[in-house]
């Protein structure tokens, strides 16, 4: 269940433009586009876990790409024009990006194309 909006993390203007108003960051500019560290990507707005680093891959599209999400973390909604499928945080409904099927980049044949500003990265801690 989504938190009360007063409990969401504060967003800067660019984050609000993307997360709340369904914008897109410029390609090849996001801080997680080339990130190779092991860890978990969480929602910038509510801190819900979204993606694991093991599911991230290089698609060369300009945004972080994942071929799987943490079960139950992401919802899919057709864009009003029917051309693409939007992905949002299942917890707080923050805009993450879009999902594409059938491109053949991975065995799962799925690409979650996610705005870096929609996420935070939590690295795995050494034991």
From TrEMBL:
<feature type="domain" description="MsrB">
    <location>
        <begin position="4"/>
        <end position="124"/>
    </location>
</feature>
<dbReference type="InterPro" id="IPR011057">
    <property type="entry name" value="Mss4-like_sf"/>
</dbReference>
<dbReference type="GO" id="GO:0046872">
    <property type="term" value="F:metal ion binding"/>
</dbReference>
<dbReference type="Pfam" id="PF01641">
    <property type="entry name" value="SelR"/>
</dbReference>
<dbReference type="GO" id="GO:0030091">
    <property type="term" value="P:protein repair"/>
</dbReference>
<keyword id="KW-0862">Zinc</keyword>
<keyword id="KW-0560">Oxidoreductase</keyword>
<dbReference type="GO" id="GO:0033743">
    <property type="term" value="F:peptide-methionine (R)-S-oxide reductase activity"/>
</dbReference>
<dbReference type="InterPro" id="IPR028427">
    <property type="entry name" value="Met_Sox_Rdtase_MsrB"/>
</dbReference>
<dbReference type="InterPro" id="IPR002579">
    <property type="entry name" value="Met_Sox_Rdtase_MsrB_dom"/>
</dbReference>
<protein>
    <recommendedName>
        <fullName>peptide-methionine (R)-S-oxide reductase</fullName>
        <ecNumber>1.8.4.12</ecNumber>
    </recommendedName>
</protein>
<keyword id="KW-0479">Metal-binding</keyword>
<dbReference type="GO" id="GO:0006979">
    <property type="term" value="P:response to oxidative stress"/>
</dbReference>
